[in-house]
Amino acid sequence: MKLVTESLKPYLERESLAAFFVGVSSGFPYAMIGATLTTRLAQDGIDKKTVTAFTLAFLLYNLKVFWAWVVDGVRLPLLHRLGQRVSWLLFSGLLVMAAVINLALVDPTASLEATVIAALLVGFAGATYDIVIDAYRIETLRPDQLGVGSGMCQYGWRIGAAAAGALALVVAARHGWSAGYLACAVFALPAMLTGLWLGEPTRREVVLQKQGLAAVWQSIVGPFVEFMQRSGAWLVLVFILVHKIGDTLANLTFRLLFNDLGYTNDEIALYDVGFGFWAFLIGIFIGGILYSRMGLKHSVMLALVLMCVSNLSFALLAVAGHSNWGLAAAIGFENLASGFGGVVVVAYFSALCNLRFTAAQYALISAAASVVGRVLTGTTAGGLIETMGYVNFYLLTTVLAVPGILLFWLMVRNGLLDAALGTAGSRQ
């Protein structure tokens, strides 16, 4: 019993709890323009190429690095009295709520153009919220809390995405999609309230104190220059770019597969959102344990292999057809691997940041992590599925995950993994 208590203690620290609550708000905008919008468009009879093209809205998450410096270097009028991070949490949270409400009011069957604009606005607002949330999380956590904090943030992200996705599906089935989206806008609140509760991150106040135009310019160019001057930075950046290609390409097409296999909204909510949610939580728990026992290098390598293999389960589901047991197994394995990988990979990426440029550098890293997969999904996924079929498509996504595994092995072998770490991973 004492062992269990000691194991749970790090998860109950205020910094870890803060990571959880900001994660809830980080996850829900993604669900609004991801699986939820995919289901809405598919049910409205929109063709597959158009549906997958909507995933290009996620590219705004990848482009956020170009305005992340604003979060580091620009003070908001009036709100800045609350602190740089807290003021931006409030502002960007309100921005997300407004964007989701706007998406609720458009009708894809009446105007695809208006729906595209609304989805892009949610993407921009959600990406901006992510910039602030990631910086707040990293600067709030101590180096020894990065693993647990990453896990708690992943718990929150998944809960936010799953709860918002399930709520949208259930409400939409009974009252229409507009009501479904409107109900989900409240998920922006946890991060805003957390900022007001916990206040400005202590590590940021100690490490980062800038003023004037020179500081703004440094916020723009400094993060890139500092990161690329590290030993092995180019190889690390290539790894970041390619390690999630297969996983991203597969994940953003699951709802198309479910729709073509004839799954209902309630079945998707139960197995994909519900069962997948619990599998993800178990994966995070396992990830936290193995991270502490195996260390960063071995745990990340294992995660990359599991995420690669998990794509095969959807090829098997495509062969099996409409099977609730098959859906539960595929979703279970996928989310178990993703939960485990989320803990260790996010901890590694967080440790790469220099605390002088937390917002901009993590925006660079997180944006680069999925940009290639999102571009491929938005431009080719629908066509590839129609040409190759689902089975061969998911086999292809499995093969595309292999280069990331090989690159990580090379970085570990050459000592570049440790050489490229930033100050967020060390005590100040």
| Low-confidence segments | 205-209
The number of helical segments is 24
Q: Give me the secondary-structure category.
A: mainly alpha
Largest beta-sheet details = none
From the spread of the alpha carbons, the general shape counts as globular
* Count of beta strands: 0
What keywords describe this structure?
428 residues; mainly alpha; 79% helix; globular; Growth Hormone, Chain: A
Q: What is this entry, summarized?
A:
The chain has helices spanning 2-8, 14-33, 35-43, 48-53, 59-63, 68-73, 84-104, 112-140, 146-175, 177-184, 189-198, 202-207, 212-228, 233-242, 245-251, 254-260, 265-310, 312-320, 324-351, 358-368, 371-388, 390-400, 402-414, 416-419. It is mainly alpha-helical.
Topology, please?
Blueprint lengths: L1 H7 L5 H20 L1 H9 L4 H6 L5 H5 L4 H6 L10 H21 L7 H29 L5 H30 L1 H8 L4 H10 L3 H6 L4 H17 L4 H10 L2 H7 L2 H7 L4 H46 L1 H9 L3 H28 L6 H11 L2 H18 L1 H11 L1 H13 L1 H4 L9
Describe the structure in your own words.
This protein has 24 helices and no strands. Helix 8 (112-140) packs across helix 20 (358-368), helix 9 crosses helix 19 and helix 13 (212-228) packs across helix 20 (358-368). The chain has a single domain (14-425), classed as Up-down Bundle (Growth Hormone, Chain: A). It has helices spanning 2-8, 14-33, 35-43, 48-53, 59-63, 68-73, 84-104, 112-140, 146-175, 177-184, 189-198, 202-207, 212-228, 233-242, 245-251, 254-260, 265-310, 312-320, 324-351, 358-368, 371-388, 390-400, 402-414, 416-419. The chain starts with a helix and ends in a 9-residue tail after the last helix. Residues 205-209 have low confidence and may be disordered. By secondary structure, the protein is mostly helical.
